[in-house]
Write a structure and sequence with these properties.
In chain A, helix 4 packs across helix 15 and helix 14 runs antiparallel to helix 16. In chain A, 41% of the residues are buried. A 9-stranded mixed beta sheet of chain A has the order 8-7-1-6-5-11-10-12-9. Chain A has 534 residues and is α+β, with helices and mostly antiparallel strands. Helix content of chain A is 31%, strand content 28%. Chain B has a single domain, classed as 3-Layer(aba) Sandwich (Rossmann fold), CATH 3.40.50. In chain B, the strands form 2 sheets. A 9-stranded mixed beta sheet of chain B has the order 5-4-6-7-3-8-9-10-11, sandwiched between helices. A two-stranded antiparallel ribbon of chain B has the order 1-2. Chain B is built from 7 helices and 11 strands. Chain B is 30% helix and 25% strand. Chain B is of the alpha/beta class. Classes of the chains: A alpha+beta (534), B alpha/beta (259). At the A-B interface, helix 16, strand 13, strand 15, strand 18 and strand 21 of A face helix 3, helix 4, strand 5, helix 5 and strand 8 of B.
Chain lengths: 534, 259
């Protein structure tokens, strides 16, 4: 027994949300990697997962936008609102993707096909508004899939047939539709498996390369070998819902609400309350051993308007996920064209569907401390002020240059309160060519070009790694400072196997006559001050 | 009747006084490395205070080593408006990077961002902001006193400052000497830096100390001032004891220096 579901997916949504027409080559980057690319950029050979620099090399006129989940979610609200006339139960899966069960609406509007056409028409009008166009361009038009179960419908929306606007899998045909799809679909669509990546990897290596092959394995064996994850994979691959329907009502005492006085008209004010409410709800559910997978966000305004929206998540929603969704939703309501006429006076979170919470075991010696939670709350506030990727968390990485040894990871990718490591595995490996500690404490983001000279003649480094003569002075801007002491060069010849990223540099430590100490770097014949020992 | 009630009230007040948790001065201080205990008036970073660190050379290292002990013992550190900071150096001075959050570009909202961090973070390390209004600075200082966050401001001259919150304590680095390089050989290993103190209250006395920042183990040590010992040639050296006695005499009387 599965719920027949319609999934609507807006292709390359982050770009549509930013108002970029599909004919403009543009990408959205997160942590220096492309996460979404426009059709025009894809034609130039830009693919998701590419590094920023490399994608710019492939397409020089590329427009690069920062990843901003707030914008994505805010702009998606009008699209969801456009579908609300057709059915009351629209669930937002993530910005750019929503779904609803089709049983009722499909019968009312005369079948899946006519419902789908209606949905497509409404959604495309809303999308065209985002792009400030009269008609939504075909490459940005939403894709729709209808099938038994959310998993199959999502895949149907993604697997568009050529020349088709939407993909309708007839009732009871879902297993046949799923069977030839690659096993990676389990991970790509929703990563519902706790340890999703490694299980999909393992399936692949075991020769279970399509969903059909996974289904052929007896379910008892999958459960015995892989535990609940294996069972879930089998259920999804055979076209069932991820768990049998649970009709027990959610305990009403897990609803949380907050009266906002004075009423809130601004999103950043509401963010603070959202975080506190999310934690309150999480604590109440956790006390009953439950976790929330579907959440209703309700708001009432001073004028008695009632707003409500359902958000769904494949795994369990953590407090930070809930807070994010509340923030996005409020942002969507308050900045939409049909914004409420008065400030929001009541905010309510209702867990709509719960599952037994596997929970997280807290470390015996603290691990998750209150200080971390406080810090997280403060940082959420700063993110609200400056944008999602304004806050970063340092991570030690191995590298041969002092600058690359610590990377900064955007906060949305880090769970501050959970167990985490600040070092990548290769951070403590030996990196020959690296200047030993102490490391310089000031880096120059803009290269600071200088000349290193001996009696007025510039010096270099020979192919054998030796200086052509003793460095005497460092000159910049027509001014020269004597070098009192120096050491080096430290030579690095990195990534010679990769044509575009090869790097051949020499570094020098110098102490100048004005008591400052620097790392000088020589790359393609030019000296720069790379870092300073301050 | 009224007297009895009054007596009860007094007894109650006494009981309340006895049971109130005692806050000692040392609880209101964030720990610093041993080398700095003698330098700072409270033996540590007093919660709610503002420390300004400037000087041409060594101010960033001084700031990092000053907050390292607090970070090791569990405090969270926010690093604001210091996009140039080498976090690997912070790691080497002992700052626990798992309790560090970085905001590189607060733009015009420096005061708002710092205000959001106050209370949640024990230490806020910041570079010079683009601009701060005087009233914002005063409000921030009041908020920090109330919530017990220490603001450490670094002004090392690599970015230009327009305004700052007035510091309770000012540390200025002066002379500096690097060791370890030998004309093409060796590597930078240790450094000696002169640090002078100024500010309000007990810190107003001033004074300066030499530190090795870092020493050969990458840590911070306080040093005696560099010895200014020279023995005039007309005196003959008698015995080892004689020399030792004379050295003690010389270091005890600063300023005594012969050709």
């Amino acid at each position: 027994m599965t719920t027949r579901t319609l999934v609507l997916s807006a292709p390359h949504w982050p770009l549509t949300a930013a108002g970029v027409p599909p004919t403009v080559p543009a990408v959205v980057v997160l942590a220096n990697q492309v996460v979404a690319s426009s059709p025009a950029a894809r034609e130039e050979g830009v693919v998701d997962g590419l590094r920023r620099r490399e994608s710019q090399a492939r397409c020089p006129q590329l427009e690069v936008l920062e990843y901003d989940p707030d914008r994505d979610a805010r702009r998606f609200e009008p699209v969801v609102a456009a579908l609300e006339d057709l059915t009351p139960r629209v669930e937002v899966l993530e910005p750019g993707r929503c779904s609803f069960p089709t049983r009722g609406p499909s019968r009312y509007f005369g079948g899946d096909r006519s419902l789908t056409e209606l949905v497509a028409e409404r959604a495309d009008t809303a999308l065209a508004e985002q792009l400030d166009m009269d008609l939504c361009p075909t490459s940005s038009a939403c894709r729709i899939g209808v099938a038994d179960g959310l998993f199959a419908a999502g895949l149907a929306a993604d697997a568009q047939l050529i020349g088709e606007r939407f993909h309708i899998v007839e009732p009871d045909m879902s297993p046949g539709f799923l069977a030839p799809l690659p096993v990676a679909a389990l991970q790509r669509w929703c990563a519902p498996l706790g340890d999703g990546e490694s299980l999909v990897d393992l399936f692949w290596r075991l020769g279970l390369r399509s969903l059909g092959r996974v289904v052929e394995v007896p379910v008892n064996d999958l459960l015995a070998r892989f535990g609940p994850d294996g069972l879930l994979a089998h259920r999804l691959a055979s076209g069932l819902d991820e768990r049998p329907p649970d009709t027990r009502p959610v305990p009403p005492e897990s609803h949380v609400e907050s009266e906002l006085d004075p009423p809130v008209m601004r999103v950043d004010t509401a963010t603070f309350i959202a975080k506190a409410l999310a934690e309150q709800m999480h604590a109440r559910l956790a006390a009953d051993g439950l976790a929330c997978t579907r959440l209703v966000i309700e708001a009432e305004t001073e004028h008695g308007e009632h707003l409500s929206r359902v958000w769904r998540h494949e795994g369990a929603l953590l407090p930070s996920d809930v807070a994010d969704r509340v923030r996005w939703q409020l942002d969507g309501w308050l900045s939409s064209r049909h914004r409420p006429t008065a400030g929001i006076s009541v905010l309510r979170l209702v867990p709509d569907e719960v599952i037994p919470g596997s929970g997280r075991q807290l470390g015996f010696w603290g691990g998750q401390t209150q200080a971390a939670e406080r810090a997280e709350r403060a940082l959420a506030r700063v993110q609200g002020l400056l944008g999602a990727s304004s806050v970063t968390i340092p991570e030690r990485r191995g590298a041969r240059g002092p600058v690359e040894q610590v990377g900064k990871v955007p906060l949305p990718l880090v769970d501050l309160t959970g167990d985490r490591s600040v070092s990548t595995p290769c951070a403590d490996a030996p990196w020959p060519g690296n200047i030993p500690a102490p490391s310089p404490s000031v880096f120059h983001r803009e290269p600071f070009p200088v000349f290193v000279v001996n009696a007025g003649r510039p010096i270099g480094v020979t192919g054998r790694g030796e200086l052509t003569s003793q460095p005497d002075e460092v000159c910049f801007g027509g001014e020269c400072i004597a070098i009192t002491n120096w050491a080096g060069p430290w030579l690095v010849d990195e990534r010679w196997w990769e044509p575009g990223r090869r790097r051949r540099v020499a570094r020098l430590q110098v102490v100048l006559a004005d008591e400052t100490a620097h790392v000088l770097i020589l790359e393609s014949g030019k000296w720069c001050i790379e870092a300073t020992y301050d | 009747m009224a007297n009895a009630a009054l007596a009860d009230l007094k007894a109650l007040q006494h009981a309340a006084d006895l049971s109130r948790p005692v806050t000692l001065a040392k609880d209101n201080v964030l720990p610093v490395p041993d080398a700095f205990i003698g330098l700072l008036p409270d033996g540590g970073l007093r919660r709610g205070s503002t420390v300004t660190i400037n000087g041409k050379v060594g101010s960033t290292s001084l700031a990092l080593s000053l907050i390292a002990e607090a970070s090791k013992t569990g405090s969270w550190t926010a690093v604001i408006a210091m996009p140039w900071l080498g976090l690997i150096a912070a790691d080497e001075y002992g700052i626990d990077l798992s309790r560090v959050a970085v905001v590189d570009e607060p733009g015009d909202q420096w005061a708002t961002v710092v205000a959001a961090m106050v209370g949640a973070f024990d230490v806020v390390l910041t570079g010079p902001p683009k601009k701060v209004r005087g009233s914002d600075g005063r409000r921030l200082a009041a908020r920090m006193r109330e919530r017990g966050t220490v603001l450490v401001q670094v002004d090392n001259g690599w970015s230009h400052s327009a305004g700052f919150v007035t510091g309770d304590l000012t540390l200025t680095t002066g002379k500096c000497e690097w060791n370890g390089l030998q004309d093409g050989h060796g590597r930078l290993t240790s450094r000696r830096v002169e640090v002078s103190i100024g500010g309000r209250g007990a810190a107003g006395r001033g004074g300066s100390t030499w530190f090795s920042l870092p020493n050969n183990d990458g840590e911070v040590d306080s040093l005696a001032p560099p010895p200014v010992v020279s023995i005039s040639s007309d005196r003959l050296i008698g015995s080892v004891e004689d020399v030792a006695e004379r050295l003690r005499h010389l270091t005890a009387v600063p300023g005594l220096e012969a050709g």
